[in-house]
Sequence to fold (129 residues):
Amino acid sequence: MINRSSLYYIASVIWGIPGVIITVKGISAYFSVDKGQLWWLLVITALVLTGFIFMFSRIVARYRRLIQEQPERTSPLKTLPVRGWVIVAFMMCLGMALKIIGVPATFTASFYSGLGPSLLTAALLFLKK
Fold:
């Protein structure tokens, strides 16, 4: 059992570490794409970033309420609801599948460069509490 306030730090790590990894992969992929495609990839990245920040801010607000409702001493597993843990597992599997399939660098650059910073923003929202 841990203090309820520690759940915010755990949630921040759960969202922040993948955020860093995905951001690095996305930015690295930009170095391997044709410079002529750069402008539209940046537009897609901005759209992905905006969409995920909007979506994740709503999810973080919901999860922060869930954490706030926990008793003062609680299990670390209460950081996310069961559905949240299932989504984390699904996203990890999806990421591994994308790596095995071998998606093009243009996808990795635009999608990951939007998703990663969005996850980092979500991690910062947990720390803000």
User: Anything to note?
Assistant: Residues 38-68 form the longest helix (31 residues).
